[in-house]
């Protein structure tokens, strides 16, 4: 077991979220969250992160990705344990497909014997860590940045469908995870950030204006501000 604590933080600001990932349809059916939804915020304290992964290398990459977020979450500490019992349960089970995560405290709705975050196995360490970084953003309450209501993307919808739709990733999921802008009453929003790790990378031909998503493998300034704002201790004044 190890305890990950945040670095001394600066004061915040916030923003939103990359492709939600191959979230299975039954998981995606939960209420839609956008950018950062404060109703999905974990309460201040310690979150147990259980790792059920194939080898030490995978565990080290996942912990490294988690630490990058932990540096900017003053309200949270993370207790990392081996096994399947925790608040956030990370798995690379080959019988489960896709890179996906429950959004924030939506994980509490899931059966305790099921993972709340899944990563596909790959020998590409850079890709595996980037996927872990992205999915931990979801696990902490962030959604896809390319679905920011103020994004500058002019989608070619037919090209998007042709590119993404498959048996594992049906049209309704593509619509929900890529095209639909996020909305809702509890959003924490800052300016659109194409450099966010929560932004999908995609080819320019998917947009009418040639805008594309870059491959973001570390937290942007916007990511840091967003998560810090979500998890900075709230000071309440005395009456």
UniProtKB/TrEMBL annotation:
**Region annotation Disordered: where it falls in the sequence:** 1-34
GO MF, any single term:
metalloendopeptidase activity
Biological process terms in GO annotation: proteolysis
This protein's record includes keyword Ribosomal protein: no
Entry's SUPFAM superfamilies? Answer: Metalloproteases ('zincins'), catalytic domain
Q: Name one Pfam family in it.
A: Astacin
Source organism's superkingdom?
Answer: Bacteria
Q: Where is the Peptidase metallopeptidase domain?
A: 38-175
Q: Which UniProt keywords apply?
A: Hydrolase, Metalloprotease, Protease
Name under which the protein is recorded: Astacin (Peptidase family M12A)
What species was this sequence derived from?
Answer: Pseudomonas brenneri
